[in-house]
Amino acid sequence: MRRKSHLCFITVTMAIMFLVMFVMYTTLNFHTAASERKKDFHVVGRALYKLDISWPKFPEYFTGQVFGVAVSHVAGVVYVAQRGENVPKVLVFSTDGEFLQAWNTSTLEMPHGIFVANASSDPTVWITDVGNGPYGHTIKQYSPSGKLLQVLGTAGKAGSSLTPLQFDQPAEIFVHDATGEIYIVDGDGGMNNRLLKLSKDLQMLWMHGEKGQGLSQFYIPHSVAVDSYQRVWVADRGNKRIQVFNSVTGDWLGSWGSCFTDDAPYSVRLTPDQKYLVVAQLNTNQVSLLEAPPVGIIGQCQVVSSIQLADDVKPHLVDLDQKSGALFVAEIGAQQAQRFTPFTLGNSMR
Q: Distance (Å, rounded) from C-alpha 187 to C-alpha 184?
């Protein structure tokens, strides 16, 4: 009996030692990987954001090319849109980095832009689908759990600029939180090159829909955001500029191009305090913060800070947590989404 007890004691001891060594090995590798990720970027200009190397807690859930990210600051949830064969098209994380769920929906073909609308009361998730197959050329509205609620456009049929709700590779959608009005940039490489404003009940209010380099013309309009001063900001990717419009009338207000001589703006979002415009530039692997002008003035663009990411990260679209000011970046090349937190404390980003 003593021998058996002794052998049992040795077996349990070895198992405990193995478990401790495994935990130490895993922890060491995690911190080593985290340290390597930390070296993958540097800041030019003012240091406004720092990389959160602990988000998400389980990055292995990223299994495809990450194209878009959207944050619900009320629910504390981050939606990540990815592409690839046999991968879930949407991953859902908490803003703290916990993995919550995956949408294994067959209704999404090639997600591009993603946006959380009406976050405070009845949130829904809007996704633009740029696929050329039977589900593409559409904008889809989902419940927070992934149930398809509504489809804008005719699935599988590329439209023309003549029909308002017939899309051709729609790039992104922005839904105004207070009014429910919808802004769409339609033309991620398709025939359409349009900026549309729709009412809450999907009636067209105004549109700019001509391809070109002139005022109010577009070449691959890629991202859209609306600020608190009735201004619409559009990343006019093909023309390497940002164009600005009055959100009520649709009148052209100005254009920024001098900041984008090296690479085009791919994404536009505003920080919660409306002080900075956050812009992703895919080919130069940069995320820049531009000084947002006060109401009534557009002027010239001015870069305040740039996050220079590692080569081939390819930042595509971004979103910000309107509560904490945290910046989330969807990265095609790195096949991940990353979280950057503001250096300022408390509510200073709001």
A: 10
- pLDDT tens-place string over residues 77-113: 999 999 999 999 999 999 999 999 999 889 999 999 9
- Cβ neighbours, 10 Å, residue 142: 21
Concatenating the DSSP letter of every residue in 186-235 gives: E-SSSS--EEEEE-TTS-EEEEE-EESSSTTEESSEEEEEE-TTSEEEEE
Interatomic CA distance for residues 286 and 3, integer angstroms: 65
3-state helix, strand, coil in the chain (%, to 5): 15, 40, 45
**Structure tokens that stand for 129 in this block:** 């689908």
Dihedral in degrees, nearest 10, Cα atoms 117, 122, 125, 128: -60
Q: Would you list the DSSP string of 11-73? A: HHHHHHHHHHHHHHHHHHHHHHHHHHHHTTEEEEES--EEE-TT-SS-GGG--SEEEEEEEET
**Is the pTM of the predicted complex or chain greater than 0.70?**
yes
- Whether 48 and 291 have beta carbons less than 8 Å apart is answered as no
What percent of the chain stands above pLDDT 70?
86
